[in-house]
Task: inverse folding
């Protein structure tokens, strides 16, 4: 059984968990404590970031996008990976993980970066990713077209993080298609499933997700008695 070292509020780990769930891959998971990383994880991946996926053949995937790619390589009956492989999607993901993440970090954690002009960083993040994303989402509701693709689940956790810094200000941005896309994802059952809370003191089986439910984002189904017993509230942002 693959073992995922994860951190619930990490956007990189979110994309990895969502891809594993969509692909229907059974996996064990350990929720790590960032300040006290497990020795077993560091032995596999000394760089010390999550997510890390340890596979049964002994190989180790140390990058979130490698995990996404691997998951859809195992099972992509719904074409999530294929739809993500357009030039526009690959470029958008590069911007998300590059320039956008750079500005997001300085906007969200100005003290860590000695940043004195948060508004400048915030606006640069909007220009780099959110505006082009809005233009794309005006054309189709998902980056995969009518249905989502790997790029949607790879990018939205970072947009979620950005939106949560100053929610009232975010609401004022002229980005209506992006706001709809984000809010659909925030209430999507796949995201709820990926945000399942795990213990930090032991490895547990990550609860499976019915991929058929994830075909089109929209309001979540009414809670069932079993989901009430296993709270999956996405909770607050990092
Ligand atoms: N390029 C890596 C980045 C992963 C990353 O930076 N994860 C953060 C958490 S969101 C982390 O583990 N940071 C280590 C730390 O804070 O000690 C990936 O795509 O997986």
Result:
């Amino acid at each position: 059984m693959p073992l995922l070292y994860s951190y619930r509020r990490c956007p990189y780990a979110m994309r990895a968990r969502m891809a594993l769930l969509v692909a229907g891959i059974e996996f064990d998971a350990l929720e790590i404590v960032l300040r006290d990383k497990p020795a077993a994880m560091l032995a596999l991946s000394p760089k010390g970031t999550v997510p890390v996926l340890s596979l049964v053949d002994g190989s180790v995937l140390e990058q979130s996008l490698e995990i996404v790619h691997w998951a859809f390589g195992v099972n992509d009956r719904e074409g999530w990976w294929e739809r993500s492989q357009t030039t526009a999607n690959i470029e958008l993901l590069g911007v998300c993980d590059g320039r956008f993440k750079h500005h997001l970090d300085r906007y969200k954690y100005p003290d860590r970066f000695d940043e004195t002009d948060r508004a400048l960083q915030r606006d640069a993040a909007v220009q780099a990713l959110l505006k082009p994303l809005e233009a794309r989402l005006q054309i189709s509701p998902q980056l995969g077209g009518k249905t989502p693709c790997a790029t949607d689940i790879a990018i939205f956790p970072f947009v979620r993080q950005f939106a949560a810094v100053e929610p009232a200000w975010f609401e004022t941005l002229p980005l209506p298609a992006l706001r709809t896309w984000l809010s659909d994802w925030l209430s999507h059952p796949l995201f709820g499933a990926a945000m399942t809370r795990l213990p930090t003191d032991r490895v547990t089986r990550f609860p499976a997700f019915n991929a058929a439910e994830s075909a089109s984002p929209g309001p979540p189904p009414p809670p069932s008695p079993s989901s009430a017993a296993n709270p999956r509230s996405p909770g607050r942002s990092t």
